[in-house]
């Protein structure tokens, strides 16, 4: 059995601000705390793991602390799921968070904070929903989510049998009740073990696919309007369509990378 483990930072143990998630040793230390604990649970359950670093530029993991392969740099490969293919028995999401505009949710956003909303075929999704759908298209079930209580709740609303691990409780957008790493490590290992054994069905959205991304009023919006006006449905919403979700989303991610770099 083999598990793909995708990591973010906003939802890991103790992180409550975007600066902690983006530019601090503390955020990376807490990421490694949670990741190592989950990998222990996966190994204890008799499974192998591959890690995909999905936070910001995808270069946050200290590979000297673990003994499994890590995909770094966030490759955009429309025909190869996450750069490693679809030969996995489950997807684990570590350190995830709620979608944009969830009331009282800690560090809520959907990939970029400048995105107001993301819909797949009319279904509102955040990062958890998008990653669950991309994996589901490959026949891979999202089996585990760790993060704050509202992020875990978002995952459970999509997949009833999903195993979740709450490492902190949201109070406001930048405050939370946080458990210490000694406590969350034990919880994460136990829940990861449980998730490997869990029988969870893939989350599927039937194609063909229409992805709509609405922007807030920001510089990114103006840049995307300038470099790719052809994908705009209206003043602040882009639309991508295709028969394959991975290829359609990957095509957009190439445009997004152009936008960010510009």
Summary of the model, kept short:
It is built from 7 helices and 12 strands. The chain is of the alpha/beta class and 262 residues long.
Q: Would you mind describing this structure in some detail?
A:
- A seven-stranded mixed sheet has the order 3-2-1-4-7-8-9, sandwiched between helices. It has a five-stranded antiparallel sheet with strand order 6-5-10-12-11.
- Helices cover 34% and strands 26% of the residues.
- The chain is globular and about 50 Å long.
- It is of the alpha/beta class and 262 residues long.
- The protein has helices at 18-23, 25-44, 127-137, 149-158, 181-197, 219-227, 245-261; strands at residues 2-7, 48-53, 70-71, 90-96, 115-120, 123-125, 142-148, 163-172, 175-178, 209-215, 232-234, 237-242.
- The mean pLDDT is 98.
- The chain starts with a strand and ends with a helix.
- The protein is built from seven helices and twelve strands.
Largest sheet: 7 strands, mixed
Number of DSSP helical runs: 7
Q: Give the overall shape.
A: globular
Helix share, percent:
25-40%
Order of helix and strand elements from N to C terminus: EHHEEEEEHEHEEHEHEEH
The averaged pLDDT comes out at 98
Low-confidence stretches: none
Could you tell me the strand content as a percent range? 25-35%
């Amino acid at each position: 059995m083999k598990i793909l483990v995708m990591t973010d930072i906003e939802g890991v143990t103790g992180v409550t601000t975007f600066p902690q998630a983006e530019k601090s040793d503390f955020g990376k230390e807490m990421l490694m705390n949670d990741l190592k604990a989950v990998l222990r649970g996966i190994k204890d359950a008799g499974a192998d793991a591959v890690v995909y670093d999905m936070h910001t530029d995808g270069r946050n993991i200290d590979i000297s602390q673990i003994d499994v392969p890590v995909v770094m740099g966030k490759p955009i490969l429309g025909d190869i799921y996450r750069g490693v293919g679809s030969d996995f028995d489950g997807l684990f999401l570590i350190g995830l968070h709620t979608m944009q505009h969830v009331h009282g949710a800690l560090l809520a956003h959907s990939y970029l904070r400048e995105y107001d909303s993301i819909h797949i075929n009319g279904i509102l999704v955040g990062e958890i929903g998008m990653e669950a759908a991309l994996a589901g298209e490959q026949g891979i079930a999202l089996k585990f989510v760790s993060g704050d209580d509202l992020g875990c709740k978002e995952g459970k609303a999509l997949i009833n049998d999903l195993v979740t691990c709450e490492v902190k409780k949201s109070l406001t957008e930048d405050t939370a009740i946080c458990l210490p790493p000694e406590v969350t490590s034990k919880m994460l290992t136990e829940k990861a073990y449980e998730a490997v054994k869990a029988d969870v069905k893939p989350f599927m959205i039937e194609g063909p696919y229409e992805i709509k991304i609405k922007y807030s009023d920001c510089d990114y919006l103006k840049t995307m309007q300038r470099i790719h006006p052809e994908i705009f449905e209206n003043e602040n919403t882009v639309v991508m369509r295709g028969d394959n979700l991975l290829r359609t989303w990957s095509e957009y991610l190439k445009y997004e990378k152009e936008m960010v770099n510009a």
